[in-house]
Predict the 3D structure of the following.
Amino acid sequence: PAQGRAEFEKIQPTVFAFVGNLSVADSGYTDLIKSTGVPWVGAVVDPDWSVRNGPNVSPHSVPNLTSDAPYVWMRQQHPNATKAAILYTDVSAVAANLPPTKAGMQKAGFDIAYTAGLNATAPDYTPQVLSMASQGIQVVYAFSLEVNMQARLERDMAQQGFHPVIEAANLSYDTDYAQLLGQEGSGWINPITYAPFLQPSAASRYPGLGDFIKW
């Protein structure tokens, strides 16, 4: 958050708007988004709804509403896998957004039997992997892990021979992911919550995306 604040203060006076933002550290500068009034076109992860729905922020968020579609789809593919674990990055913005994720999974029929916050700089996550294995976890959902954290987690699971029925995450696009893991990352499910706007054909398939890319 402190680094994000420093970057915001450095950049903001010289730009017209911020576009395409997505950060779990935006708590460091949400007050500046509000006070400067600079156009902010992109996600705001901070739980302060007054910032998320401010006049200069788009899109606006809807409080107390989350989609259970990815979890329903996973349950349909593996109806007998219900005992689940959620691992998340142990920072305030991620923790604040964890309850809707839990609620969505539970709504889909998953039993959240294990939850653990992961330190972003920890060298490995073997203790958490062993805990999940000992409890017979069938579903692992990694919530908002940075790509190197995700790679460490997947390697630790493979080293311990822990292969749950469903391995899922909300890891956004990251070109480093395939380079870090190669085939080790095969089989993980990563639901996408945004239109894949880097694909050349995407603009013709999603209303409004052409305008987004143009502007």
In short: Residues 147-159 form the longest helix (13 residues). The first strand starts at residue 18 and ends at 21. The CA atoms of residues 53 and 169 lie 27 Å apart.
